[in-house]
Amino acid sequence: SIVVVKAANDLVTPDYVDRAAEVIQGSDIVLIQQEIPEETVVHVSDLCAKYGVPLILNPAPARPVPQSVIEKAVYITPNEHEALVLFGEEPLGEVLRRYPNKLIVTEGKKGVRYYDGSQEVVVPGYKVEAVDTTGAGDTFNGAFAVALAEGMSLSDSLDFANRAAALSVTEFGAQGGMPTRREVEGGSLR
Prior knowledge:
This protein is of the alpha/beta class. It is about 40% helix and about 10% strand. It is built from nine helices and six strands, in the order ααβαβαβααβββααα. Strands 1-2-3 form a three-stranded parallel sheet, sandwiched between helices. A three-stranded antiparallel sheet has the order 4-5-6. The protein is globular and about 45 Å long.
């Protein structure tokens, strides 16, 4: 199980972010999630849009997201439950079509699903013996951000992220399960 003690996260305010605006402006990509206050998420999306820095929104933990943030994010990476919170009961295929190459829905061991502008694409997951799924989404998002920042294609970035997430569930704990770069790049999972 995961326990969140929000003390430090609640201190990530828009003013706090403004003190790092220069870092954001010089970034290749920004990855943000929702354990921080909503107004900070909105503010970071505004800064990224202002500076032309791509923003990945990992909408976890699940809560509604302002439409302005959805529009400004370059990628949104909900799992299936988070997609329901964001988009309601609208069929997933319709939501994917509305956000081509932007909405990336993670589906656990099945992989990830997105719409490429002409068809739904599934980037398959890797078969592993899962020990603990805690932190798999965080691992996926971190690896996805790294791959994109390094210039990998969307498809290759998603495969890299799937590989990292698969490896993360083979060990216990959110941090303890996160693989190293060498582990993600080496060996065979399929």
